[in-house]
Design goal:
155 residues, 6 helices, 7 strands
C-alpha cells in the first residue's frame, strides 16, 4: 500500500513534539550557529512549533523584512529560552513558505531573509521570484555572484 504524502499545510500544523526546551550541548546540529551567537553548554534552547514560526512570518508588514535570526530571538523570548535552534526554525520557515504557496494563504514568506540578508533560493520559484516580490514592495536587491541580497537591510 502506498502511503499518502503529507501536504505542506499538514507539515506546518504538526506540533506534536513542540515546543521543546533543551539544555544546549555542543553536539546539537545547530551548535555552530548557536556558538556564534554566544551560546554556552547548558543554556536553554527552544525548538519552537512550526505554526509559531508561521505566525511571526505572517505579521511582517509590507515594506518590512525579518531575518531567520530575528525570528529565533522572538521565539526564544516567547518560550522563555535563551536561544532558539536556527536549524529547525530554518526548516519551519521553508515549510511555511511552501504551505503559503500551496494554500495561497496570506503569509508573506518572501519578507523573511537568511541571516546575512540573502534571499532564499529554497522558496517557491526560487530567489528570482523572491527578488521580484521584494522589488514590488520597494526593496533594492543586489546580485553578488549567483546570490541576491537586500541592499541597506538595516534601514
Amino acid at each position: 500500500m502506498v502511503k499518502k504524502r503529507k501536504s505542506w499545510q499538514e507539515k506546518l500544523e504538526n506540533n506534536k513534539s513542540f515546543p521543546k526546551i533543551m539544555k544546549f550541548e555542543t553536539r546539537f546540529p545547530c551548535a555552530k550557529a548557536l556558538i556564534k551567537m554566544g551560546a554556552q553548554p547548558g543554556d536553554s534552547v527552544v525548538l519552537a512549533p512550526p505554526l509559531a514560526v508561521n505566525e511571526i512570518m505572517k505579521e511582517v508588514p509590507e515594506g518590512k523584512l525579518i531575518t531567520l535570526g530575528e525570528i529565533c530571538q522572538k521565539l526564544a523570548e516567547k518560550y522563555g529560552a535563551k536561544y532558539c535552534c536556527t536549524l529547525t526554525t530554518g526548516i519551519f520557515v521553508f515549510i511555511a513558505a511552501q504551505a503559503a504557496e500551496e494554500t495561497k494563504n496570506d503569509v508573506p514568506y518572501w519578507r523573511t531573509l537568511k541571516n546575512n540578508y540573502e534571499l532564499n533560493e529554497k522558496y517557491p520559484y526560487g530567489a528570482e521570484r523572491q527578488k521580484e516580490l521584494l522589488e514590488k514592495e520597494g526593496h533594492t536587491i543586489l546580485k553578488k555572484g549567483k546570490r541576491y541580497y537586500v541592499k541597506d537591510y538595516k534601514e
